[in-house]
Design brief:
The chain has 347 residues and is of the alpha/beta class. The chain has 16 helices and 9 strands.
């Protein structure tokens, strides 16, 4: 991390001796903070930071390699004060360790130092005090969403483990007392998404979108990515398809939105149409825009469904290669590994 950032600060709220030694080996400054909530510990760490910008990660997260060179570009831009980066979590479905949900949501992880930002919240739901900083339409334009940088969580949760975490109730109580901007609704929608409460998630997202439109602002693309991620989970509906078409009119180059369009074709058994979309999503010429998530829907999941389409169309050699490409993008993605093994056995 030293060549990405100027200093690394680790706030110790329970490090083991081996972890402490590892951080020291990599040049980190370790600050002991044995009391209080995680948000208080993070605020204490920010007080010690000397840089103009702060990038923060949980202990089980890392920044994907493709994002390293782009961080410096972000902080030289004077038009924004906080940047949402994509954060990816893996949740294993209860009772089936091979079926995983990949949660990919935008979180405020890069912000300008010494202008009043502080952490609020608890556990994985910790966030920044947007309500205090951004109070007008012009203020909200200081927020940027940058999908080309991604943070990946290295810890996989089972659905049971996640449901035991008290973060959803905490966030509900916390945010309902301060629903002043679209971002509050977005934060709560993120929690509903994690807990698979899709009806509640959509309600919060729609209210947030309404507030953006009321302020004559275009809602950020990540809202629609989350909104139509339910294509992966829920029965298809005409309203869902129409809404996705409208989102694509606003963001025609957004790889993830096209991925969901391809998934709709796939679920309708329109394999040729779905394959055309997945091929376009994995075309290197389409992977250059800001909207592409290099390790998200635009990569390993798209290759996986590309393989499923090719298999349905009896193009088995190409399907084998697509599954291998999916595994290359995420070697822990079990569905691609299982499909590849099954295909090899059948041949």
């Amino acid at each position: 991390m030293q060549w990405i950032v100027d200093e690394v600060i680790v706030v110790n709220i329970g490090l083991t001796a081996s972890s402490r030694e590892l951080f020291k080996t990599h040049g980190a400054k370790i600050i002991d903070y044995p009391r209080g909530h995680i948000s208080e510990a993070l605020n204490y760490g920010v007080e010690q930071a000397t840089g103009d910008w702060v990038l923060w990660l949980h202990e089980n997260e890392y920044l994907v390699q493709s994002a390293h060179s782009r961080l410096r570009e972000l902080i030289y831009n004077e038009s924004h004060d906080v940047v949402f980066l994509h954060v990816q979590e893996t949740v294993k479905t209860t009772g089936d360790q091979t079926h995983v949900r990949v949660l990919d949501v935008a979180r405020p992880r890069l912000f300008r130092n010494r202008i009043g930002f502080r952490f609020v919240g608890h556990l994985q739901a910790v966030t920044l005090n947007f309500e205090e900083i951004f109070q007008t339409k012009d203020d909200n334009e200081r927020i940027q969403l940058y999908s080309a940088c991604q943070i990946v969580g290295t810890q996989s949760f089972t659905q049971e483990q996640m449901m035991k975490q008290p973060t959803l109730l905490y966030r509900e109580n916390e945010l309902r007392h301060s629903m002043k901007s679209p971002w509050s609704y977005y934060e709560l929608a993120c929690e509903y998404f994690r807990y698979q409460k899709f009806e509640s998630m959509l309600k919060q997202l729609n209210e947030s979108i309404r507030l953006f439109l009321k302020n004559k602002s275009i809602p950020p693309s990540i809202y629609y990515v989350m909104k139509y991620a339910e294509v992966m989970e829920q029965p298809l509906s005409d309203n869902m398809c129409r809404g996705l078409d409208l989102a694509l009119q606003m963001y025609p180059n957004h790889t993830d939105l096209h991925f969901y369009r391809g998934l709709i074709y796939y679920r309708r058994q329109q394999y040729k149409e779905a394959l055309a979309v997945f091929v376009a999503c994995t075309d290197p010429e389409n992977l250059k825009g800001n909207y592409t998530i290099s390790q998200g829907a635009g990569c390993y999941r798209t290759f996986y469904f590309k393989g499923k389409c090719l298999e349905k169309l009896k193009r088995l050699d190409e399907a084998t290669q697509a599954y291998m490409d999916s595994i290359s993008g995420m070697n822990t993605f079990a569905p691609a590994t299982q499909s590849l093994e099954k295909l090899k056995k059948e041949r």
